[in-house]
Amino acid sequence: MEPPTISAGWLVLRPFALTDAPWVHEVSLDPAMRQFVELPSPYRFEDAEFFVREVAVAGWRAGRRAEFLAEEAATGARLGRVGLGLPGAGLAEVGYWVDPRARGRGVATQAVRAVCRWGFDRLGLRLIEWRAEVGNVASRGVAERAGFVVEATLRQRLRHRGTWVDAWVGSLLPEEIDPRCRAVVDQAAGEASGAVGRAS
Length: 200
What we know:
Helix 1 crosses helix 3. The protein starts with a strand and ends with a helix. The chain has a 9-stranded mixed sheet with strand order 7-8-6-5-4-3-2-1-9, sandwiched between helices. By secondary structure, it is an alpha+beta fold. The longest helix is centred in the first third of the chain and has 18 residues. It is 36% helix and 34% strand.
């Protein structure tokens, strides 16, 4: 799967490159993020490099993940990450996080809407699922604003900090996405960004 670049209003979603590892490392040290995201502890720079190289970049090549870095279109500032896990059968699971300096600006909601629109339109997905640890109200708020219907609380479905925890689960169908949501794919830019990732 060739990684595209997606224009989404004031955001641009692009594939990761190894040069993004220092930023991933910095953001992953944020205590608020570590509260709900399963991360190695202590989190080393090598862990950030592994995420970029083996999860974000290699995931595209294997067709098992579609990972995007969300940038501010006007400045190129890195703001957050949104991705789709792709197990097959027309299904995907969305995940996201935001740089603490960019929170409260609607980054995650805008990025999630755009990547879901792209997934439905370009990948032919039939359902996108969202899961989060019970109590992660920020993630739930993003999911609901993006159009996800929270369906249930599942007992001990996520592993976090070495224990199994309860999870909220929601889903989004193609007809439920906001029709005003735009996700313009710039394939030429995507091929250039993808080349950078492969060369890293």
